Amino acid sequence: MIPLTADPYAPDGDEARRWAEEELQNPRYADAKPTWFDYLAEDVAEFINGLFSPDTGQQVGSTALVIVAVVIVAALITVLILWGRPRAARRVKRRGVDLLGERDDRTAAQLRAEAERRARDGDWDTATVLRFRALARGLLERDIIDPAPGATAQAIAREAASALAAHHVELTAAAGTFDQVRYLRHPATEQSYRDLAATDDLVSTTRPVAGREPAAVTS
Predict the structure, then answer these.
(1) Is pLDDT above 70 for 24?
(2) Do the Cβ atoms of 170 and 199 come closer than 8 Å?
(3) C-alpha–C-alpha distance, residues 132 and 108, integer Å
(4) Which of 139, 158, 168, 177 could disulfide-link 144, Cβ–Cβ 3.0 to 4.6 Å?
(5) Where does the chain cross the membrane (predicted)?
(6) Angle at Cα 191 formed by Cα 156 and Cα 98, nearest 5°?
(7) Is 215 a residue whose pLDDT tops 90?
(8) Separation of alpha carbons 37 and 42, rounded Å
């Protein structure tokens, strides 16, 4: 009988181990791993099922089971509240990001108030710039937009229009007014400011279309 020869392409033990380690380092395996919350939910579900099993029911009374169940539900609610806090913290942090070329942590309400003060003084240029920044800040605070760093007024208007389609024309016009004053140095007028302020008021009370995600716009 002719002896079989070893496959020249088959890896030896060390080589096979190295291939396996490299494959397991692929990000798709890390993404597929359950989170700590998944493990916690699984453990809690198993514990609750165990509490209401026939064997456990014979050992403890129904009142005790109800008390334990209520405690577990309260604990889960607490975890969910804490789980949602990073989103709120992210909103606060995002207030200080660069928006329309300015790093300013004032809220939309504060920017509107300042714009109105400048308007009363007849400083329509500054009032216009502040009012559009208030409009953009308000959209950001409501999670309607998530603009990339350096996003322009037109980019913000397009992103907002993806969720507020009914006001696409007004948003585009407001961005154009901002650009005319801020970059092209065309003087604003009382009427142009009032139109922008009306758009801001309109947008701030409009609910976004359900299920629409902010568009990824960079310029």
Answers:
(1) no
(2) yes
(3) 10
(4) 139
(5) 64-84
(6) 25
(7) no
(8) 8
Domain boundaries, the chain: 13-94, 100-204
Structure tokens at 74: 């309260």
**Token couple for 191:** 């009427």
Per-residue pLDDT tens digits for 122-167: 999 999 999 999 999 999 999 999 998 889 999 999 999 999 999 9
| Spatial contact of 47 and 72, defined as CB atoms under 8 Å apart | yes
Instruction: Say how far apart CA 23 and CA 42 lie, in whole Å.
Output: 28
Confidence of residue 58 (pLDDT cuts 50, 70, 90): low
How far is it, in rounded angstroms, from Cα 91 to Cα 86?
Answer: 9
Contacts of 78 (CB under 8 A, 6+ apart): none
Higher pLDDT, 44 or 42: 42
Average pLDDT along the chain: 77
